[in-house]
Specification:
The protein is an alpha/beta fold. It has helices at about 25-30, 45-60, 75-85, 100-110, 130-140, 175-180, 195-205, 215-220, 230-245, 250-260, 270-285, 290-300, 300-315, 330-335, 345-350, 355-360, and strands spanning about 65-70, 90-95, 115-120, 140-145, 155-160, 165-170, 185-190, 210, 250, 320, 325-330, 375-380, 380-385. It folds into 3 domains: about 20-190, P-loop containing nucleotide triphosphate hydrolases (Rossmann fold); about 195-260, Orthogonal Bundle (Helicase, Ruva Protein, domain 3), CATH 1.10.8.60; about 270-385, Arc Repressor Mutant, subunit A, CATH 1.10.10. It has 16 helices and 13 strands. Strands 2-3-6-1-7 form a 5-stranded parallel beta sheet, covered by helices on one side. It binds adenosine-5'-diphosphate and magnesium ion. Adenosine-5'-diphosphate (ADP) binds near residues 32, 72, 74 and 200.
């Protein structure tokens, strides 16, 4: 069975991907809340941020540097824009990958105006030299510009106006300590509850002039993987479906029919997710099975299965990662409408899964020795596992 060949990059183009698709940036911009008060959920981060901004305004100073971390699609870019809006300050946008030389950063920093907010998306992907320049700029509002090369090189200090950096990262763990320490405020965004997603959807529906029943909002929210970006995307697909089917009011059945058509199921799983679970349950009797064997069985790259499908399956308690390989959790059988085999030894494994497996921490779970031979019986073939 193949799922149509998702590469890890193409994983971004899945309807249930947290990252944004190229053509939807504009639509997204229109749906972004402009003020903190309109920003749904994330109460802790919102309250803390509100305090930081209020205090800065009262002091008549620029706000402390702000670091926002969390998975794609939860509102980091939106919040950075809100910071500028609330501070009544101009906003400059750049990103880690765009800043490869310290000169790139120097050019941006030296053109900032007093009080400006500089949003640095994917800040963990900035180059080392640029990062070091940023330390000094953030702390002392000063950079040293190096002129010339080799022995004749001199550095000229340049004073900068006060500004606020808002850094966003999906991988807070990858940020070097010294950089992390220079942020006065760090907010971590978490996945949204279904109730919160319904609020996001209601707000977007009003802006898109769509009419949905309460149950229809619930139906879309439960398929949105805790992610506002996905919720808004599914809402637009429902809108298309309603338009073509000439429905002016969308109820739960219509919403479900629309999303079924796009192959997003009742738990927000798509074709790739389901084929991974299906292979695990039916071909491998629930596992444990090595990652590469599982990938071969679904006709995908190892990396696609590991980075695109697995994180959500693990988070949902459908798939477990154990030292002996991947296993199907009881909820997986249930979701696929299958009965778990009674006699299998895998059932004993469910109780052996360390706590962090459920948290999706892959770093500690790659305990299978690299390049080891696993005697896995896939149609009688031995597979050599070259990784994980
Ligand atoms: N708390 C929220 N309330 C309302 N809409 C939100 C919220 N968080 C995100 N969104 C919507 O989700 C989309 C993606 O948000 P974005 O800030 O770009 O996410 P990130 O930068 O974390 O990937 C935006 O279109 C925005 O309108
Ligand atoms: Mg973003």
């Amino acid at each position: 069975m193949t799922t149509g060949g998702f590469s890890p990059e193409q994983g971004d183009d899945r309807i249930v991907a947290g990252s944004s698709m190229s053509e939807e940036r504009e639509v997204e911009a229109a749906l972004r809340p402009k003020h903190l008060a309109e920003f749904v959920g994330q109460h802790r981060v919102r309250n803390q941020l509100s305090l930081v901004l209020e205090a800065a305004k009262l002091r008549g100073a620029t706000a402390d540097h702000i670091l926002l971390s969390g998975p794609p699609g939860l509102g980091k870019t939106t919040l950075s824009m809100i910071v500028a809006e609330e501070m009544n300050a101009p906003l400059r946008i750049s990103s880690g990958p765009a800043i490869q030389h310290s000169g790139d950063l120097a050019a941006i920093l030296s053109s900032l105006t007093e009080g400006e907010v500089l949003f640095l998306d994917e800040i963990h992907r900035m180059s080392r030299p640029a990062e070091e320049m940023l330390y000094m700029a953030m702390e002392d509002f000063r950079v040293d510009i190096v002129v010339g090369k080799g022995a004749g090189a001199t550095s000229i200090p340049l004073e900068l106006p006060h500004f606020t950096i808002v850094g966003a990262t999906t991988r807070a763990g990858l940020l070097p300590g010294p950089l992390r320490d220079r942020f006065g405020f760090t907010g971590h965004l978490d996945f949204y509850s279904n109730d919160e997603l319904e609020l996001v959807l209601r707000r977007s529906a009003t802006m898109l002039d769509m009419h949905l029943t309460s149950e229809a909002f619930t139906e879309i929210a439960t398929r949105s993987r805790g992610t506002p970006r996905i919720a808004n995307r599914l809402l637009r697909r429902v809108r298309d479906w309603a338009l073509v089917n000439q429905l002016s009011d969308v109820d739960a059945r219509a919403a479900a029919a629309a999303l079924d058509m796009y192959e997003v199921d009742s738990r927000g799983l798509d074709r790739l997710d389901r084929s991974v679970l299906d292979a695990l349950c039916t071909k491998f009797h629930g596992g444990p099975v090595g990652l590469s064997t599982l990938a071969i069985a679904v006709g995908e790259e190892v990396e696609t299965v590991e980075t695109v499908a697995e994180p959500y399956l693990v988070r949902e308690g459908l798939l477990g990662r154990t030292p002996r390989g991947r296993i199907a959790m009881p909820a997986a059988w249930e979701h696929l409408g299958l009965t778990p085999p009674e006699d299998t030894s895998t059932q004993g494994l469910w109780s052996l899964i360390p706590e962090e497996t459920a948290m999706g921490d892959s770093s500690r779970l790659n305990t299978e020795p690299a390049g080891s031979l696993h005697q896995e019986n896939l149609d009688g073939i031995l597979y050599f596992e070259d990784r994980d």
